[in-house]
Amino acid sequence: MAPRVGLRSLEKRRTLIDGVRSNIHVLMLGVKYFVNPRRMTLVYPREYPKLSEGYRGFIILKKEKCISCAACARICPSAAMKMIRVQEPDPKHPGKAKMKQYPVINYQRCIFCGYCVDVCPTEALYHVNYHDIVYDNLADMFWDLETFQREPEYKTAAEGRPVRIVIHEELGLVKVPVEDKA
Amino acid sequence: MSGEVRVYGGWRDDLGLRVIPSKRIGKDVYEVFIGPQHPGSGHMRIIIRVDGDVIVEADPDIGYVHRTMEKLGEIRGWIKPIPLFERMAIHDACNITLPYVRAVEKLMGVEAPLRAKYLRVLLCEINRIASHLYGFAIFSIFLGHSTMYMWAMGDREVFIQLAEELTGARLTHSYPIPGGVRRDIPQGFPDMARRAVRYMRKRLEEYRKMFLENPVIRSRLEGVGVIPKNLAAELGLVGPNARGSGIAYDVRIIEPYEVYDELDFEVPVYTEGDALARTYVRVEEIAQSLRIIEQVVDWLEKKPREPIVDESIYKKYPPLHKKILESQGRAKLLPWMATMKVPAGAAIGRGETGRGEIIYYVESDGGVNPYRVRIVTPSARNVIAFKYALPGHRVMDLPAIYGSLDYFPPEADR
Predict the structure, then answer these.
(1) Across chain B, what does the average pLDDT equal?
(2) What is the CATH number of the domain that holds B311?
(3) Mean local confidence (pLDDT), B86-114
(4) How many CB atoms are closer than 10 A to CB A61?
(5) Exposed site from A88, A148, B195, B358, fewest CB < 10 Å?
């Protein structure tokens, strides 16, 4: 059980009859797919692919879990995530305020590598399984702390029908309608 | 001055601008620039000199997509260059970053556990198939065979789907990390992979009928762009281009990394050295990669799950991380990885990407950033073949030779 070299050589330049035969093969294959076409067209946005749970889509913050360690901002390869300081009521000293750091994200820069989600020691960040969201202007892609905690509205899901894309042994990729829209 | 004025090598148009369709450089020899806006060629220019219709000299002019990968690799720590280096060839992401990760592992003194090695090989082979199909598609559209283009691009989607299920991203997976990989296989992945393998086998049979044995394609590729064995060795070609010329050179054989020495597969070598032989090498490699995927998936399914990161890293995992690895199969990163220091030293990582051998030379001075990351990509080594494969052929053979060399400018310019 080891890799080995397989020395091969091409067949010799072929005769006219071989050429005719392979031409007929090609034409027959063409006729086969003309009669029985294998198409898989995703009629986006009337249909949209329901992606798997592990998909690395938009990143959302669970603020109550955040411990302000800034690991996500440090590991971000494209410097999309930054820490900001906000004033919060101090639970230990009622009536007093304290400064705390939270991450915010700039989706103009994010490359969806998911390092921040994987590095977060308390699982305060998570991916949603969609990514097709359109913004009217670039400024909206800077998410402040409030936006970062809400999952963005997935407008495609409101209009379209979810399909799951699966691999079929005969047909390659096929789309299967998903019943629940959740 | 009125009307058209003939100037050296061109004409002045109505605005007085010089129009240069081609440049006459000698008796009956003209200089023609192919690219950089050549449809499909990507970001590269080939300067050819033609005598009539026959190319007498060819000069690949590269550097249009140079992004200073080596310099950028020196300023962002040890783990952040992984998503960066993927951008050299995003459809071959795991293959192209794995040697870097292995070089860093050597410096750090960690090693991926066996299961992680199998997972790396799995994604490497999925990437290799996707990369070959991509090259195949571009090649076919160069030849005007748009059916094959659609087929190859459509079937590549099957393997992108597989990679997405495994890693969570279609192309830029950022999958290997120093000490392991980021995710274990999800539920139902082995069956999905087996279906994809069986599907692709059937398709390869149809590819053979539609493309490889198509008389039109054969007559355009047979004996075109021949690179003899000694020339290929002199030029230092790597990957399928070298193997199409009869050189049995594959890093997976001469220096097996990860678990390639435990797997049963062949490295196809053809002796003809023409465009058709290079095409056959790629098609055979797809078939062999399918075999590897089957073996790896069987192994992963049979063996019990174990941590997919090195023991020294796993030891430092807090209970939450261990729970997530067990329940979701997701290996978390530890916060010190963002600013980790790697012991001083130098290491070399080699790997076989879809287009050939890639070498990383990584040097550390003990700091938080690499001191030097030298990258030699396969396309950078293969580009010289244009200079020697093109002369003597007609201009119509240029797309056939270009496509058969499977040259990828962003990878070469890096």
Answers:
(1) 86
(2) 1.10.645.10
(3) 90
(4) 24
(5) A88
The mean predicted confidence, pLDDT, of chain A is 86
- CATH class of the region A59-151: alpha beta
Q: pLDDT tens across B342-353, in order?
A: 999 999 999 999
C-alpha distances out from residue B170 to A80, B118, B129, B188, B406, Å: 20, 20, 14, 18, 22
- Is the pLDDT at B408 greater than 90? The verdict is no
Structural domain of residue B398, as residue ranges?
A: 69-413
Mean predicted confidence (pLDDT) in A162-169: 88
Considering the domain boundaries, does residue B1 fall inside one?
A: no
In 3-state terms, what secondary structure has residue B11? strand
Cα atoms found within 13 Å of the Cα of residue A163, Cβ hemisphere only? 18
Residues 107-136, chain A: which have Cβ within 8 Å of B?
Answer: 111-115, 118-123, 127
The yes-or-no verdict on residue B394 having pLDDT over 50 is: yes
The C-alpha atoms of residue B319 and residue B49 are separated, in whole angstroms, by 67
Residues B338 and B80: their CA atoms lie apart, in Å, by: 8
Q: Distance between CA atoms of B272 and B246, rounded to whole angstroms?
A: 7
pLDDT in tens, B207-246: 888 888 888 888 888 888 888 888 888 888 998 999 989 8
Cis status of the peptide bond prior to B39, with omega within 30 of 0: no
Mean of the pLDDT values across residues B104-125?
91
Which residues in chain A are contacts of B313 at CB distance < 8 A?
A: none
User: Mind giving me the DSSP string for A74-103?
Assistant: HH-TTS-EEEEEEEEE-SSSTT-EEEEEEE
10 Å CB burial of residue B71 (0-12, 13-18, 19+) is exposed
Cα B277 from Cα B222, distance rounded (Å): 8
Does residue B15 form part of some domain?
Answer: no
pLDDT digits (tens, 9 = 90+) for B146-171: 888 989 998 999 999 999 989 988 88
Domain count, chain B: 1
Query: For A20-24, B1-5, B145-149, B335-339, which range has the lowest pLDDT when averaged over its residues?
Result: B1-5
Q: Is the ipTM of this complex over 0.95?
A: no
- H or E element: which one contains A72? helix A71-75
Query: What local confidence, expressed as pLDDT, does residue A182 receive?
Result: 47
Give the distance from residue B24's alpha carbon to the nearest chain A alpha carbon, in angstroms: 38
Closest CA to B182 of B257, B240, B264, B98: B98
Q: A residues 140-159 near B, CB within 8 Å?
A: none
The answer to whether residue A52 scores a pLDDT higher than 80 is yes
Contact yes or no for A26 and B209 at CB 8 A: yes
Distance from CA of A55 to the nearest CA of B (A): 4
Tokens matching residue B134: 């991509």
Which residues in chain A are closer than 8 Å to B271, comparing Cβ atoms?
Answer: 7, 9
Min Cα distance B99 → chain A (Å) is 19
A167 → closest Cβ in B196, B214, B264: B196
